[in-house]
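Repro:
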Amino acid sequence: MADDSEFITKLISFGLSEKEAQVYLHLLRYGAKPVAVVARHMKTYREDVYRTLRSLVGKNMVVESTSSPTVYAALPLETALDVTLTKHKLERQQMEKSKRELEELFDTMDSSPPVEWCSYRVLSGPNKMQAFSIQNLLNATYDISSFLWGSVLGLFFVSGILDIGADMVRRGVRARLLTASRTQI
């Protein structure tokens, strides 16, 4: 005979919260009950049980009566799980359809950024990097981003480029400097 914790764990893996799994198991085991009876038996607050039951109704695991007081009943396990599987299958199909539509739509869009928006340049050698960096920092007016290997940062410090960068920030230019060591990549 399986214990409750194993059954609850399996229900959690099926998409229920722990409290939902406990309440659903209670209704499966003991039949339809009003909120007050479930709360008393589970030694918890009625408000918590009510919220949990509303969630289970929304997940098509539990149905509620129209009588007063409202009585909640668990759908048979196989039926509830089949309904959940069908719902997830439909959601997945809809997501796959949306994915295809988004991919097709993106293919028709112009995805190249405007020339004035950004540019990329790969520099080889410390002299080219230093000359371009100084020119770029002195001419920056709005926004600048750079990526450097961590070992190059020391060269920028020694050459004074970091001081130019500090001056650029004082002028109101928004700056981002990304660094990485070769072991991080």
